Each structure stands twice: as C-alpha cells, then as structure tokens.
Amino acid sequence: MRLLGIETSCDETGLALYDEARGLLAQRLHSQVDMHRAYGGVVPELASRDHIRRVLPLLDECLEEVRLGREAIDGIAVTTGPGLAGALLVGASIGHALGLALGRPVVGVHHLEGHLLSPLLADPAPAFPFVALLVSGGHTQLMRVDGFGDYRLLGETVDDAAGEAFDKTAQLLGLGYPGGPAVSRLADSGRPGAFSFPRPMLHSGNLDFSFSGLKTAVLTAVRRIEVTCEQARADVARAFVDAVVDVLAAKSRAALRATQLARLVVAGGVGANRQLRARLGTASAAEGFELFFPPLDLCTDNGAMIARAGLVRLRAGQRSGPGFSVHPRWPLEQAAGSDAGRAAGGAAG
Ligand code: KG4
Ligand code: ZN
C-alpha cells in the first residue's frame, strides 16, 4: 500500500509518500517560519492561507520525484487535530477531496500519534513496549506505549511545553522565532554554572513537568545582564538548556523505572535538540536502556509521520469521509482509545 501523508496543523506544510514495503519514497516540507517571524509567532489566518497555496504543488513535487501519478496513491492520511482549526481544515479538505476524486480511502490522524510513531521511520525501529517522551512546541508528555493505539499518559506539563520554553527564551535573548535551534547553538558557547536556574518539579514525586518558572528565571537573568554582551547571553542560554535537559532526562529515567521498561523513544521538535540527545545517550549507555530518536529531519512536523501513523489506522479498517471534522483540541488517549490501532497490532517496524 502506498500512502500519501498530509500535515498542516500549524506552520509547516508537510507532504510525503510512504510505501508499506519500501518505506519513505519522497517528502516535501515548506516551513512558514519566515512569514511569521515578523509577528513573533504563528498568525493562524496567514498559516491557513499559505497551506492552501502549498499543499498541491508539494504533492506534485513528491510524485514527480518518484515518477508516479496521483492514481498511484492507494490511501490518504491527513492530520485532523490537534492544531489550528483553519490550518487543519486546509489539509483535511484537500485530503478528503483527493480521496473522493481518486476513489481512495482517507483516514484522519492525531498529530501526536504521528510524532509518537515517527521513530518507526528510523532503522532500527523500536519494538513495543516503550516509554515515549513527546516534546514539541505544544506538548510535553511521557507516555507508556504498549502497541499501536495503546497509549497511557504517565505525566505531562502543567503549564508551558518544553518547546514553548525554548521559543520564549529565544525571544528574551533576542534570537527571534522559533528559537529552539538558536538557543541550543548559543548555549554551546555558554559557561556552565554562570547562572543557576531552577529545575521545576524535579522532585515532585510524579512524572509531571512545569516550565513557566524557568521562563521567569530567564527573564530575571536577562534583566540583570548587559544584553549586548554575547558571553552573558550565551551563559543564560547555557543555564536554560542545562535546566531543561536535566528535567527531561530525569523524568524520562523515572518513567522507565516506574514502568520497569528499558526502552525510551524521544519524539517531537525538541527531540532534535543536540544537548538532550547527548544527555540521554550518556544515560542510556550507563544505565543500559535502549534509546530511539526519529531521524533528525522527522523530529519536527512532517508528512511522513502522518503517513506512517495513517497506515496503521487504514490497515485497521478506519475510514474518514466523505464528511469530516477537525479537532483543534484532542487528547491523544481519546484518539487512541478505540481499539482500531490495536487491531492493526503486531510488532512495530
Ligand atoms: O514538533 P514540532 O515541530 O511542532 C509542534 O508540534 O509543536 O516542535 C516545534 C518546537 C518548537 O518549539 C521549536 O523551538 C522546538 O520544537 N525545536 C527545538 C529544536 N528544534 C526544534 N528545541 C530545541 N532544540 C532544537 N534543536
Ligand atoms: Zn508537532
């Protein structure tokens, strides 16, 4: 089965062709970052309008790359939530229209399930069960994953998401939007210990996170330094990254202990963070748990992860359309709760 994946939940238009037997055939991504930068964040109406312009040309580019026509698509997977309502509607409308025109099945995919299963696009892919650390711009969650569609929330942020904390820190340091990669790079030249930031909820005794206090600590530090001093800004970035990575690594290891599992999967935009990868890599070697990341370019939003998750759901007989709706707010357990995913069953890979 050859699947088309469409992702338009936020500020990235992602299209991908995924072949059940051969893996990822082609993918295209258009980031709207340049368009939103002037506003310091995503402007929903602009995002929707840009997705409308991009989806079909990106699809044609994918098909041209593998010299196939639209009729070669056997099924369509499209993100139907959570995300920006207007942006989701663009992908969902085009996906369902294509399905109708081509006479192919369409399935709606939960954006976070896409992230969660994105490490399956790597080689080697993790086997079930595993603990997943999902760290994106909108979510920070630890989940226990026992199989397709079988997800249990272990803990999550009570306020800001980790990616959001990176983006806000970037803004405070004058690094622009979105800030994750820029903060990470600046932190490299920061001196460890020059600033000491709190590790929120590190000893809370549960698997929840909180990042809003850290943001306040960054704000206070930025007010104290000379903002033109590159070294001082780097020191703040370093203290911030050290604090976030400490908390994410400690809670992930606590989740492994609590579940007695020895396999950790990290997904979502912050999963691209070099310092986090390094810290967890060291812990994995020292403590003997297996560690999996999606390929670097599949950590942030993309169509391939939507196609991969959609494959599971289509194989389980799930269908959407011709009528459809989108779900801007949509807890993952609700999407997964049906045993459609589980019916697809079997080992990951
Ligand atoms: O998963 P994603 O692409 O979108 C959401 O579903 O939210 O994640 C985007 C987030 C942004 O907050 C961005 O700053 C962060 O991921 N991010 C990073 C890095 N690359 C992206 N944060 C830290 N280090 C990175 N290298
Ligand atoms: Zn995402």
Report Rg. Answer: 20 Å
Question: In sequence order, what are the helices and strands, one letter per element?
Answer: EEEHHEHEHEEEHHHHEHEHHH
List the uncertain runs. Answer: 338-349
**Cofactors, ions, other ligands:** 5'-O-[(R)-(carboxyoxy)(hydroxy)phosphoryl]adenosine, zinc ion
The first-to-last residue Cα distance is 15 Å
Structural class: alpha/beta
| Fraction of residues in β-strands | 15-25%
The helicity comes to: 40-55%
Shape: globular
Continuous helix count: 12
- What average pLDDT do the residues reach? 94
Major sheet: order of its strands? 3-2-1-4-5
Task: Sketch the major β-sheet.
Answer: 5 strands, mixed
Secondary structure: number of strands: 10
